[in-house]
Design a protein that fits this description.
With 419 residues, the chain is of the alpha/beta class. It has four domains: 102 residues, Rossmann fold, CATH 3.40.50; 60 residues, no CATH class; 164 residues, 3-Layer(aba) Sandwich (Rossmann fold); 59 residues, Alpha-Beta Plaits (2-Layer Sandwich). It contains 14 helices and 14 strands. A six-stranded mixed beta sheet has the order 6-7-5-8-9-10, with helices on both faces. A four-stranded parallel beta sheet has the order 2-1-3-4, sandwiched between helices. Strands 12-13-11-14 form a four-stranded antiparallel beta sheet. Helix 1 packs parallel to helix 4, helix 4 packs antiparallel against helix 5 and helix 5 runs antiparallel to helix 6. The longest helix has 36 residues. The structure holds guanosine-5'-diphosphate and magnesium ion.
Length: 419
């Protein structure tokens, strides 16, 4: 049975640039993608946070009333709660109370599949929990980690704290190792001169669908949030035979809490190291401009805002009026309108990818000694071979290869330029 949730969207005088109803809608989407059912939602307007309950006491009473009558399982706040506020609220409304960060962590925890993803989530959960671990009220059992036998002369709280700190240290160390091994893998890929392309974009924009449509990766898509947590990479061959690696990424969201960005850095390293970004936008969403800006904010945090980017205007099949698309297209330097689901205009996208990646490749026309089959194979493997002629001891090859491979070949003795 779906967990019944009551959503409290907190509206302070000073808040972000998002309209409050969008904040509320995102919170609802998050809950639904978690399998929850929203039974009631409310906006709590206040000038500034109150120390006790974050929001005003009148509102707290109202929430307590609804909890009593509507059988609410969980109260969810759009705004982060301090440990003391959370405990006070739980006491007042007599119902489990969590905040948006905890909700996101919960979703991450449900979706994490790889060892690394799980470790990242656990680390983020523990780091979130540790400063909130004062007195009673927090259920450690939620972590499922068998924490807490009371040592002689120690309170349970101290033991829990120490164990959590130790676990955090260990997770950080293990994660570093995993990250090193992933870096090595990536390095190998760079050595192979294969450009990497990262799909970024607000959750639900259609990244996984696009990756599927392009590569038939067969990865789960789901009309909900965060179906892809773990880095997912697929090899893809452009129509020009250029090999590329396409990677899906974790959902970007409005005001992704900063500590989560840190915790998920390994996932986002794919973005940092990419040669090209595909920024997928759901233009059927009336708020797509806000979503676009939210993604750009995250890219800025990763120092990736200046990376070569193709803006992919997705879900055009859902538009009844397409006349404004042209204007929109003009506002981005590299842009393609597609439908990832209906596979509309995908060739324009691959053409654009090729165009943007082109400066990394060059046409060579070389004569290679027949004894250097290794190099001949390498050109076949990594490049797009246009023509091969055998003449005596040499093989003449005309091919489009990466600049890197071209300069590698130029440095080999015995290779002659044929043109
Ligand atoms: P992601 O979170 O960015 O990976 O988004 P998904 O690929 O999971 O897509 C989210 C939802 O949008 C799914 O229900 C998709 O079927 C749907 N979707 C994706 N692309 C399109 C499209 O081009 N047209 C339509 N109509 N729906 C799409
Ligand atoms: Mg996805």
């Amino acid at each position: 049975m779906a967990e019944k949730a009551l959503l409290v969207t907190v509206d302070f005088d000073k808040r972000g640039s998002w309209p409050i109803e969008d904040v509320a809608k995102e919170l609802e989407d998050l809950v639904v993608s978690c399998g929850g059912e929203v039974v009631w939602r409310t906006v709590a307007r206040c000038k500034k946070p109150t120390p006790g309950y974050l929001i005003g006491e009148g509102k707290v009473e109202e929430i307590a009333d609804v909890c009593r009558t509507a059988g609410v399982d969980t109260v969810i706040f759009s705004h982060d709660l301090k440990g003391s506020q959370q405990r006070n609220l739980e006491e007042a409304v007599k119902t489990k109370t969590i905040d948006r960060t905890q909700l996101i962590l919960d979703i991450f925890a449900r979706r994490a599949k790889s060892e690394e993803g799980k470790m990242q989530v656990e680390l983020a959960q523990l780091e979130y929990l540790l400063p909130r671990l004062v007195g009673k009220g927090i259920e450690l059992s939620r972590l499922g980690g068998g924490i807490g036998t009371v040592g002689p002369g120690e309170t349970k709280l101290e033991v829990d704290r120490r164990r959590i700190s130790e676990r955090i240290t260990r997770l950080k160390r293990d994660l570093k190792e995993v990250s090193v091994s992933r870096r090595l893998k990536r390095k190998k890929r760079t050595d192979q001169n294969v450009p990497s392309i990262s799909l970024v974009g607000y959750t639900n924009a259609g990244k996984s669908t696009l990756l599927n449509s392009l590569t038939n990766a067969g990865q789960l898509t789901f009309d909900g949030l965060f179906t892809t947590l773990d880095p997912l990479s697929r090899q893809y061959i452009l129509p020009t035979h250029q090999k590329v690696i396409l990677s899906d990424t974790v959902g970007f969201m409005y005001e992704l809490p900063h500590h989560l960005i840190e915790a998920f850095k390994a996932t986002l390293e794919e973005v940092v190291d990419a040669d090209l970004l595909l920024h997928v936008l759901d233009v059927s969403n009336p708020k797509f401009r806000n979503l676009h800006d939210a993604v750009i904010d995250v890219l800025k945090e990763l120092n990736c805002q200046d990376k070569p980017t193709i803006t992919v205007l997705n879900k055009i099949d859902k538009l009844t009026d397409k006349s404004w698309l042209r204007n929109l297209e003009e506002s981005f330097p590299n842009v393609v309108s597609i439908s990832a689901l209906k596979k509309e205009n995908l060739s324009a996208l691959t053409g654009k990818i090729n165009e943007v990646l082109v400066p990394t490749t060059t046409l060579i026309d070389v004569e290679i000694p027949i004894g250097r089959m290794d190099l001949i194979n390498l050109i076949h493997k990594e490049g797009e071979v246009k023509r091969v002629d055998y003449s005596g001891d040499f093989v003449r090859i005309r091919a489009v290869v990466s600049f890197k491979l071209a300069s590698q070949l130029a440095a080999v003795k015995g290779i002659k330029s044929a043109s």
